[in-house]
Amino acid sequence: MATAAMNISVLTLVRNRPGHLAQTIEGLRRSEVAPMELIIVDMASDPPVAAMETPFPTRIVRPETSGLPLAAARNAAARAARGELLLFLDVDCIPMRGLIAAIGRACVGRDALIGAPVRYLGPEDARGDWEEADLFSRSSGHPVRDFPATGLRVEDNPGLFWSLVFAIRRDTFFRLGGFDEAFTGYGAEDTDFGFRAKDAQLPLLFMGGPGVFHQFHDTFDPPFQHFRDILRNAGIFHQKWEQWPMPGWLAAFERAGLIAWSESGITVLREPDAAQIESARLSHVPFAVPAKRGHRPPA
Hints:
Elements (H helix, E strand, L loop, with lengths): L1 H5 L1 E7 L3 H12 L7 E6 L15 E4 L8 H11 L4 E5 L3 E3 L3 H9 L5 E3 L2 E3 L11 H7 L1 E2 L10 E3 L10 E5 H6 L13 H11 L4 E4 L4 E3 L4 E2 L6 H15 L5 H9 L3 E4 L2 E4 L5 H6 L1 E2 L17
Parallel strand pairs: 1-2, 1-4, 2-3, 6-11, 7-12
Antiparallel strand pairs: 4-10, 5-12, 6-10, 7-8, 9-11, 13-16, 14-15
């Protein structure tokens, strides 16, 4: 069991969130089983992510990029990784002590896309010294993504795949073709990955037990600041799958008078202005955020 867990490469992307990255790394330092390595893809942070001492090998990948190339950055991380298993962690996620060992055990003899539970922290949590038990008592789980208490559960809805925290065999990742780099900027690239996994008959499994704590950051609902990215990526997704991703966001854009949206297409009526963008800022834990990029589950 330990051997499988130690063969995990942890992959994370970062852009201008050094405090969040530091706490993610602190979680990895405390892990019951250390990762084989940590790969950090620095998406043009200012200042750049600096080299750091860790009890496991850490490498920083700096692709030439502009904007927020999430699909391409995840693929770059996977290409740089040496482990048999890839554990993708959002830079906002602090892994629990038992996560790596549990993911390693879940992947033994099993080829699947495996997600772990996420618990959401408030604005003042995990900003300094912390203990895992304290973070657990302060945090809340997602209200609609249903993870088992223990073990693994098959999830048939590929729209519920999320990229915050997931594991996949490295060879399977490349067999699927990685993330589709036609998706640039923000939105739908992870939903597309979930759909392609289902199309390839790769099961999506939700794992109970240890997961991650999601650190608070500024959030906008709807994300008017990513308006053009979301529309472009929604169009790409619709061409591939003949259905619209991110319906909650598209409906919000329509209600705001920004678009006309029908099953056949989207027409831009106007751009969001600065006041409208700011009005969408949330100052509390936004439970709707994890479902935002994918297909929202039924109410």
